[in-house]
Amino acid sequence: MLVRLGLAPALLIALLPYLGRQLWLLLRLTRLIRRQHRLVPPFPHGLWGLVYRSIARYQQRGRKERKRQVRFTRRFREAANSVPDALVILDKSKRVEWANPAAALLMNLHWPQDDGRHLSEVFEHPGLAEYLDRGDYARPLEATPRHNKTLMLSLRVAPFGERKKQRLVVGRDITKVYHLNMIRRDFVANASHELRTPLTVIAGFLESLADSALTPPGHRRPLVLMQSQTQRMRHIVEDLLTLSRLEMDDRAAQIAPVPVPVEIDGILADARALSGGRHRIEMQLDQNLLLLGNEAELRSAFSNLVLNAIKHTPTGSRVRVIWGKGDDGPEFTVRDDGPGIAAEHIPRLTERFYRIDTARSRASGGTGLGLAIVKHVLNRHDARLLIASEVGLGSVFTCQFPAASAVRRDAAAGPQSLTAGVPPVRPPALPASGS
Ligand SMILES: Nc1ncnc2c1ncn2[C@@H]1O[C@H](COP(=O)(O)OP(=O)(O)O)[C@@H](O)[C@H]1O
Ligand SMILES: [Mg+2]
After folding, report:
1. Of 139, 107, 134, which Cα lies nearest the Cα of 121?
2. Which of 256, 305, 347, 360 has the highest CB neighbour count under 10 A?
3. pLDDT 10s digits, 151-175
């Protein structure tokens, strides 16, 4: 028969059972894998056994990895659930994806019930939707939730995930700190207010006494001293009241384009009067650049910086005021070649009553509140104060405003320098510190 069929077909027939078994094993394996079955011994002999064993090993490794991930996720959830802050994860369209139990307590946001709802739908707050869309989360949003009006929350947002499209919202209960801060603020405001009237009365009487012909000559000197100290107290009270007013809310009210070059002219007149010709005062102003902001507040901040440069530098110092477009937005800069400030003082300069040399600051009529006022004003304008200084070389105080606050009077006109022959100066590359 073999002879009649020929060799090849005869071999094929002989191999058929073998090929059939191979095919069957392959199909079985494919089916097991497709149905995600676990491969368990006994495994077939030979090459297929090797394949089965290798796949079984992979499966085991995968199972271990999955278990590890599940354990990790569970531990992470447990940790997130025991955090006292509200944690909410939003998807890229700002819809709730997950929240911890504290979110129910603090933000009235229940997960999984509120899954998929827009955050501003669940946690109603007038500024929230805009805050989330703005994308600038440098400053937290303070909010009182509707369901519990006694609470004060600080909401912080951090972008995360793929291309930073998701948001992690952290809501912290700051009720206690907020109330303490209110008490402190009100106390300072009330105490300053209460001191104002008696000080006015004392100053009035001192003035009459100093002017009166009946005052014995020996009393004149103490009277002058009493007058100057009363004046100092009045300045402190006024500065404290200014700070209290600035603390009332986060953002400056009555925003309008402020003609900064005009303001600077006025400030420089005061500076020249204070200097009495002891300083070289220069300016370099972009006459066409105006600034969106509160005029009185900005004037007070700029004036503080310019007068500081006069007050805290010796005779012969050069003071330069620059107003123009910086790398990002408008910049107001005051630089001097005075004694400079040691690095360790720089981060603390904007603290209330912080002075490097208290006696000297007092003698120059300083209250130690000027830079605190500057910082508050700038915060309310979304601006930053940069202080760069080196002992022996001088100091540079720069107010950096956001690009959006620039207003051009006439886009066609370029910047012009009022001090002829003085090249434009950028703040030097000194060790800088923000505040
Ligand atoms: N241009 C400057 N050069 C050197 N020191 C300065 C300058 N500006 C401010 N300071 C220091 O910072 C301190 C705080 O400034 P400020 O808050 O305005 O208070 P003050 O009422 O003393 O001016 C000053 O007492 C002074 O020691
Ligand atoms: Mg000052």
Report:
1. 107
2. 305
3. 999 999 999 888 888 999 999 999 9
